[in-house]
Amino acid sequence: MAKASTIETLPADILEKLQALLRDPRITQMDATQRINAILSEQGAEPVSKSAVNRYAVKMDKIGAKLTQSRAIADMWIGKLGNEPQGQTGKLLNEVVRNLAFDTAMHMAEDEEPAHPGAIKELAIAIEKLESAASKNEARDALIRKQAREEAAKDLTEQLKNDGISEELEASIKRILIGK
What's the rounded Cα separation, in Å, for the pair 45 and 38? Predict the structure, then answer.
């Protein structure tokens, strides 16, 4: 097992200060290292090296770039899929994870060594959870559509009642709009 980075072992408050320093474009990594080491010195803790700060900054930059790219892709597809961003985001993420699971399964199948049973189990659990989430999303979407139809039927029949429609016509409208 790899040794934990000295940066990752910093107390949460000092790590947050380091992260803020690294996000500030006016502060160099060298300055950030010196400021954090000054705080650590006051607390009687061991300093962090410049290379540890650099490795951490590079790692965070890579993660940030991936997040930015993921958001840009999601924004593009959500814009294309429609104007229900929460539901569409869930559907898009389900599809991305479904593709990742498929790719993982294919790599496992192509490997000359048999797949570890634990890896197969975890992949199966991930797929089961993914499909369960997709079913829940679909059920939630159906419920939202049903509630919208019921609200529209209620509003329409109330308006038409004010105009003097019969109960039979009101029932007919409800049957057409909400299946009652």
Answer: 10
Instruction: State in Å, rounded, how far the first CA of the chain is from the last one.
Output: 62
CA distance 116 to 9: 31
Is the CB of residue 27 less than 8 Å from the CB of residue 19? Answer: no
How high is the mean pLDDT of the chain?
Answer: 81
User: What whole-number distance in Å separates Cα of residue 173 and Cα of residue 60?
Assistant: 58
* Tokens describing residue 151: 């609200």
Residue with tokens 């634990």: 118
DSSP E strands in 72-132: the ranges are none
Tokens 């408050």 identify what position? 13
DSSP result, 15-44 = HHHHHHHHH-TTS-HHHHHHHHHHHHHHTT
Average pLDDT for residues 14-18, to the nearest whole number?
93
